[in-house]
Each structure stands twice: as C-alpha cells, then as structure tokens.
Amino acid sequence: MNALKKALFAIALLLAFVVIEQGARADVLRLNLSDQITPASAEVITAAIARAESEQAAALIITLNTPGGLDTSMREIVSRIDTSRVPVIIYVAPSGARAASAGFIILLAADVAAMAPGTATGAAHPVMSDGRDLDKTMAEKVTNDAAAYVRSHAERRGRDWQAAESTIRESKSFTEREALEKHLIDLVARDDADLLAQLDGRVVTRFDGSQVRLALGDQAVTDIQPSLRQKLLMALADPRIAFVLFALGALCVYFEFQHPGAILPGIVGSVSVVLALYGFHMLPINLTGVLLLGVALGLFVLEAKVGGFGVIGAGGVAAAVIGALILIDVRAPELRLPLSLVLAVVVPFAVILVFMLKLAVRARRMKVTTGMAGMIGLRGRAQTALAPEGTVFVRGELWRARSPMSIAAGEPVRVTDIQGLTLNVEAERDDALVPKNASAVGE
Predict the structure, then answer these.
(1) How much is the pLDDT for 140?
(2) Which strand (E) or helix (H) includes residue 284?
(3) Alpha-carbon gap, residue 166 to 132, rounded angstroms
(4) Considering the entire predicted model, what is its pTM?
(5) Do 384 and 408 form a contact (C-beta atoms < 8 A)?
(6) Does residue 368 sit in helix, strand or coil?
(7) 407: number of CA atoms within 13 Å, CB side?
(8) From 73, 101, 129, 403, active-site residue
C-alpha cells in the first residue's frame, strides 16, 4: 500500500513538473502579412501583439511583404510596437518581397529588423493622392514631419538616422545588403530557421531602453492565423474589391426595384453595397470623387430619358472615371484605383444601366393594351342609336355606351373613357378605318 502511495505521489510530482514547464515555456508567435498597410492590417498586427503579450511569448515575428499604405495605419502599428511587452521582430521575406514606404518605417521601428536575401526596403517619400509630388509649401511640411518621425525611431533603435531620413527626403531604396551596411537593419537571414538561429542569445534593446536577451533556440514557432472577420476586413479594405462590389451591388439593387419580387438580385445587391460602403469607411474618401460619381449617375439617367445620342452618356462615363480615380484620398499610389480597373467597371456599368433605364422608360410610355384601361382608343360600331345611351360593338363584345352627341345605329365609334361597365364613346368619322361588317370590328 505504501509502495502504491509513493508511486502515485511520484506521478503527481511528475505531472506537476510537466505542467509547470509547459506554463513557463514561452513559444515564438509568427504572423505573415503580405498586404497593404490599412486599418484592417493594423488591427491584425495589434491583435497579434496582444495575443503575444497574453501568452507571454518569447517573441513575435512578423513576416512582412508590403508596398506601403496609409500613414495613419502605419503610425498605429508603430505605436503598438513601441509599447509591446514582447519583443517584435520584423522580417522582410521571402526573397522578392519588399517593405516600401510605410512598410520601411514599420521595419525601422522593430526591436529586431531583418531581411531575406533578394529583398528591398525604402522609398518613403510622401506624394499626393493622384501620384504627383506635393506643392512646395505642403511638401516641406509633410516631408519634415515624416523625416522627424523616422529620425526619432532610428535614433531610439540605434540605427543610422541619416540613411533612414534619406528614404524620406530623397526616396532612396536599399537592398538587404545595403540596408545592413547602412545599419538600417540588424541582420540578413536566409529563412525562418536561420533567423531563429541568429536571434538566439541576442541582446535586444527595447524602445523604453530596457534590454532583453532572446532565447529562441528551442522554442516552438506557432503561426497566427487572422480570424475570418479580419480576413474579410483586409479584403474589403482593398479599394479595388470595394469598388467592384459597389458597382455590382448598385446594378442588382436597381434591377430589384425594376422587377420587384426577384429577391435574389435584391439580396445580392444590398449585401454587396453594404460591404462596399464598410470597405470605403476604412479608407479616406475624397468628397469631390463622390460628387462626380453622383453626377455620373444623373447623366446616365438623362441619357436614358432624354436620348442624348450618347453625348450625355459619354459625359457620365468621363465623370465616373475621374471620380473613381480620385475617390480614395491617399498619398500611397498602391491604394488608389488603377485606370484599367476603373474603365473595366465604369464602361460596362454605364452601358448596362442606360440600357435598363431605357427599357424602364419605354415600358412606362407604352399604351396599356390589357384590362379595361386597354380599351381606351379602340374603335367599334354602334349597335343601336345612341341618344345619348345605347349599345356598341367593340372588341367582339356588346357594351352599354354613352355619347355626348347623337350617333345613329351602324355608325363607327371610338372609346374615349370607361366608367364602371359603361363606355364613353364618340363618333368616328373616318369610315375607312372601320370594317362594314360590325361583327368583325375589334376581333
């Protein structure tokens, strides 16, 4: 019995030791981000840092490949890296990847900045939303602000602030070797295994000045997968996807209004428009672009109703193209709508919308040919004399009729109105339009 108790006690100690070891073990978390820097990607990185802190991870590796993005989102990411309780390692990979513009500043702000062979970084000079350089006064203000921001982080991280500032003032870019020689990054690693091997035992100076020795040699690497919501946000934050969704949704909604009860176009259109508007909500929108798109819709309607021989429609296409090109008010060219996409969406949208509008206008102008209202304008023949009432033969049927003038039996008549089951008629003097055989009239 004592032997059994001792065995159970030993097992309990062993399990407790394993639990303690597992609890004390801090894995390395890794996030792969290959996207533009937007509010959605900022949320993904912020959530990854929060998870690394809650799990007391040894480090967080962010594998980065980005052409740049929004300045506001970049500053949000940098601010979160600065305050992170877990060392954040930015690794530009794989070969062929880049950390340009806003991506360069995020790389510069990392606790450890690393790049893979065949990668590049830099080119963070501010530009206008349409791709042109800023005017002289504004350029000086914006450039000085960006340069000061980069310089402060480079100095804080012990990196070459002059080389870092040259990416702002001179739009310089660097390969991984050049960046290492300029002391913009800390190391060049072939792959994740090489990165971990070089980081193991490395002393890192945090943004607050404290130092941490990394022990990553025997740590497991756990990949962080963005949630379904975050993936959806990252997709909607792409202005190209949002623009296509909005155009498709608008056509579907209009089709549902013209054909009530179709249901499916209404559902698809409503969901698409709402998703597109949410995507645009995450991006800075130019009011002039919105107004031009509204003007374009108005011109499309006029083209359909007035019939401008294509001139008004062409004006609508021009307004829509210009409005779409300036719709996203950002300095980053990679977040603007490309001309090829705008033309591929606007031209078919205009053709389909004008065609549908013309069908709707034509249908409203067509004379009713069914039901009681469809009898107005039909011709027939008086079956009896109308003085003022009698019977007429219209559309192969005998009707009670009333006329403001006397009409003799057999005289041709035309229906002018219907009141209940009584027709209001008037004499039709053009006998050539009415067959002599009354029984054939209207049949």
Answers:
(1) 78
(2) none
(3) 19
(4) 0.68
(5) no
(6) coil
(7) 27
(8) 101
Give tens-digit pLDDT for 220-231: 889 999 888 888
Q: Which of 207, 240, 203, 200 is nearest to 38 (CA)?
A: 240
Residue-wise pLDDT tens digits, 364-405: 665 555 566 667 778 889 988 888 889 998 887 888 899 888
For residues 84 and 51, the answer to whether their CB atoms sit within 8 Å is no
Copy the structure tokens of residue 359.
Answer: 């069908």
Sequence-distant (≥ 6) Cβ neighbours of residue 56 within 8 angstroms: 26, 86
Helix axes 339-365, 311-325, angle to 10 degrees: 140
Q: Pick the catalytic residue: 6, 141, 231, 305?
A: 141
Q: Which residues of 241-266 are buried (b: 16+ CB within 10 A; e: fewer)?
A: ebbbbbbbbbbbbbbbeeeeeeeebb
CB environment 357-367: b (16+ within 10 A), e (fewer): beebeeeeeee
Burial class of residue 341 (count of CB atoms within 10 Å of its CB; 0-12, 13-18, 19+): middle
Question: Is 101 part of the annotated catalytic residue set?
Answer: yes
SS (H, E, C) 122-182: ECCCCCCCCCCCCCHHHHHHHHHHHHHHHHHHHHHCCCCHHHHHHHHHCCCEEEHHHHHHC
Go through the chain and tell me how many residues it has. 443
Distance CA 89, CA 34 (A): 15
CA separation for the pair 386, 421 (Å, rounded): 16
| Peptide bond between residue 239 and the one before it cis (omega within 30 degrees of 0) | no
What integer pLDDT is reported at residue 127 of this predicted model? 54
d(CA 80, CA 74): 10
Is 251 within 8 Å of 269 (Cβ atoms)? yes
Q: In sequence order, which ranges of 282-397 are alpha helices (DSSP H)?
A: 287-306, 311-325, 339-365
pLDDT score of 60 more than 90: yes
CA distance 29 to 89: 10
Mean pLDDT of the chain: 81
pLDDT digits (tens, 9 = 90+) for 161-183: 999 999 888 889 999 999 999 99
Active site residue 141: yes
Determine the 3-state secondary structure of 429 from DSSP: coil
